[in-house]
Amino acid sequence: MTRHVHSRLVRPASWLTLWLTAIAAAGCGGATEMSVAETTGPAPQLPQPKPSLIPTINVVEASPWPEGTAPQAGAGLQVQAFARGLDHPRWLYVLPNGDVLVAETNAPPRPDEGKGFKGWLFKRYQKKAGGAVPSANRITLLRDSDHDGVADIRTVFLSGLNAPFGMALAGDTLYVANTDAVVRFPYTPGATQITAAPLKVVDLPAGTLNHHWTKNIIASQDGTRLYAAVGSNSNVAEHGIDKEEGRAAIWEIDLRTGTHRVFATGLRNPVGMAWEPELGMLWTAVNERDELGNDLVPDYITSVKENGFYGWPYSYFGANVDDRVKPPRPDLVARAIKPDYALGAHTASLGLAYVGMPGVSPTLAGGMFVGQHGSWNRKPFSGYKVIFVPFEQGRPSGAPVDVLTGFLRDDGKANGRPVGVAIDAGNGLLVADDVGNAVWRVTGIEGDS
Asked: Range of 318's domain?
């Protein structure tokens, strides 16, 4: 009887000890064996996977920029604040007249997301990284009326939205991707506010789980279709493949009929999308899976082929099988498309914007800008910067170039985190900084080449 009572008394303490030990182990996991450069490019090095019960958790403590400070621009570049004092700005869209739309947004209520011990860990560290703020649920318009590189007019353009993210103009209609639906509004050039009620175009996968809540959209080049990026509902389908219906995919939406179809699949979390004009291909930036070690799996950018399958969840970077996913699907792995260009493991590459000629500067012309929000599942940190990938003949043609850095401090903490990127009417690069509550503008230094 004494033994029975003793067991009941120590069990809670034992579980607490186990949890604390697991947290400590997760935060102090082994360091990476590879550089980010080794997991970058068209043929990245892919080490053996190192799955573990408790993954490496190495989350930066992020805060807004102190007054008078800013990120560091790359060689031959300069940066200034286009706008400050925003509320978690995540995504950008530049209208034809030069007005800039900013989605001030964050995750909606998701009561079934983050349950269990691992979910508790993630929620705890998300708060540390500056991501646990309420969603403003609005789109703000910024206008630089005197063309000095700083927005001098700011208005609430749309409000009362539901975790809005992607924006796209087609003709006289503005489309907005809420977390649960694409909606549309009439748009008048030069308007500083839209008061019309939204009209639903199509529902998007959401619900009470809704793991990857951001939904992005881009219009086709002829304005007749939208492409909608929908992330997965998990890391690697651990909630069941039935929870992934319509997810980890890019949809094609016919704006004349309202019908939609899945255009490409196997893309764990496609967020940024851009058109490459030389070959006319749609490109996307994809966040790949976590918890296979510091050096797996690299995020990537890739051209998106119609009816293409890119591996998730059954394989990564082509036919590299993920043994955690049961049951396996060798038939799908056999046709998995290898992405075009890896961006380093766990960099959280989200934003994507193409710039042609003359470019942002003489050295940053003809290629893709990528916003890298930064890692949580790698030691040391990766990402936390904006890079440029040069293109030739419609394909990546060289090593990435650092464009905007300095988000990570020498003390291991961070000021701000870059997300969405866009090219403005003056060929400046705009960068949404959600933790910094700012939009930065990067331009070339006159006379520098």
From this structure: 31-444
